[in-house]
Specification:
binds 1,3-dihydroxyacetonephosphate; TIM Barrel; 8 strands
Length: 256
């Protein structure tokens, strides 16, 4: 069994009004707000970050954002910064999600600036990497993941790397119901671990949690989470209902 504590993070994406978010977080806190076997993070949209954060106060569940700008402040209409997130007690931030890469044109270089800004502000980046279906079919999966990982982590030092979480999210498995097989997922996770060893050395690489994301749900989670290098999940659809999200936390707690 790995010494890494499992992490289950809910990415609510562009879902939930503040009222809906309040209802969901209340149910999550009631069910898993005191458990300590698994790290749990919820990432609501910006409009309910602060209220969800208040609802999490006193619980073991952490608050994460879905994105941020690399600059601390300034003329960046529509953006929010790392210091703003810290001021409302966010601990994590999802960076480089494939939806932002695809719809907002985010490059590895831009994602890297955000990673460095997050670390500078004591926020833990959840850096997302993953290939499209066309890239997988062309046999380019590992190359794509390597480019995104090395690009995203440029300039990160050995001391900082333990604060980073990597999420492997094959784009073809996101929101499609097509989950990667355990072999497909573990192969890429082990490859990522190997890259981390090369970049930061074995002891530090062994501390980094590598999450799987893409149609993870309570029925397929036990097998995925039992893999040597799969240290948790970044959950989209199944994080939008308390029952399935809580069940995922329970599954993660039970994996040996
Ligand atoms: P789904 O769980 O809905 O496939 O989304 C995964 C994801 O993109 C999490 O960031």
């Amino acid at each position: 069994m790995s010494s890494r504590k499992k992490l289950i993070a809910g990415n609510w994406k562009m879902n939930k009004t503040s009222a809906d978010a309040a209802a969901l977080v209340t149910d999550i806190v009631a069910a898993v707000g005191r458990q300590a076997d698994v790290d749990v993070v919820v990432c609501p949209p910006f409009t309910s970050l602060e209220s969800v954060g208040k609802a999490l106060d006193g619980s073991t569940v952490n608050l994460g954002a879905q994105n941020m700008h690399p600059e601390a402040s300034g003329a960046y209409t529509g953006e929010i910064s790392a210091p703003m997130l810290r001021a409302i007690f966010a601990t994590h931030v999802i960076l480089g999600h494939s939806e932002r890469r695809a719809y907002c044109g985010e490059t590895d270089a831009f994602v890297n600036k955000k990673v460095l800004a997050a670390l500078k502000n004591q926020l833990k980046p959840i850096l997302c990497v993953g290939e499209t279906l066309a890239e997988r079919e062309a046999g380019a999966t590992l190359k794509v993941v390597q480019t995104q990982l090395e690009g995203g982590l440029e300039g990160v030092n050995k001391e900082q790397v333990a604060s980073i979480v990597i999420a492997y999210e094959p784009v073809w498995a996101i929101g499609t119901g097509k989950v990667a097989t355990t072999e497909q997922a573990q192969e890429v996770h082990a490859f990522i671990r190997g890259l981390l060893v090369k970049l930061f050395g074995e002891p530090m690489a062994q501390k980094v949690r590598i999450l799987y994301g893409g149609s993870m749900k309570p029925s397929n989670a036990p097998e995925l989470l039992a893999q040597k290098d799969i240290d948790g999940g970044l959950i989209g659809g199944a994080s939008l209902e308390a029952r399935s999200f809580v069940e995922l936390v329970t599954v993660a707690a039970a994996v040996k």
